[in-house]
Amino acid sequence: MSLSEQQVTQIAYLARLSLSEAELKDNTKDLNAILGLAEQLGAIDTDDIEPMAHPLHMTQRLRTDEVTEIDQSENFQSIAPSTGNKHYLVPTVIE
């Protein structure tokens, strides 16, 4: 597939881009090169290739899950208007 300068002008209009004549020629050439590469990639037979989640065979190093902050819930709830059983009490909205 190849794009004409008229099609690139229309695409630029839809994208609200203003292109000079030189930019129009350059963008048309670049877009056609990208579309040509996409056609080449589409022509590759990948039927026997197993999909990969990541191109490198490695695992993520994970840190140990440990608490790093002190529990300040009592301090925060001390300034709340009303609390009960370690949770905040709020007025009923729906009856």
Mean pLDDT: 91
Low-confidence stretches: none
Radius of gyration: 30 Å
Distance between the termini: 63 Å
- Taken in chain order, the helices and strands follow as HHHEE
How much of the sequence lies in strands comes to under 5%
Give the helix/strand class. mainly alpha
Strand order of the largest sheet: 1-2
Shape field? elongated
Structure annotation, total helices: 3
Helical content band: 25-40%
Report the biggest beta sheet as strand number plus sense, adding barrel if it closes.
2 strands, antiparallel
Total strands: 2
Can you give keywords for this protein?
mainly alpha, 95 residues, two-stranded antiparallel ribbon, elongated, 2 strands
Account of the protein in words:
This protein is mainly α. 39% of the residues lie in helices and 4% in strands. It has three helices and two strands; from the N terminus they run αααββ. The chain has helices at residues 5-14, 21-42, 73-77; strands spanning 83-84, 87-88. Strands 1-2 form a two-stranded antiparallel sheet. A hairpin with a 2-residue loop joins strand 1 (83-84) and strand 2. The longest helix is centred in the first third of the chain and has 22 residues, at 21-42. It is elongated, with a radius of gyration of 30 Å.
Task: Summarize the SSE layout with pairings.
Layout: H1 5-14, H2 21-42, H3 73-77, E1 83-84, E2 87-88
Summarize the structure.
The protein is mainly alpha-helical. The chain is built from three helices and two strands, in the order αααββ.
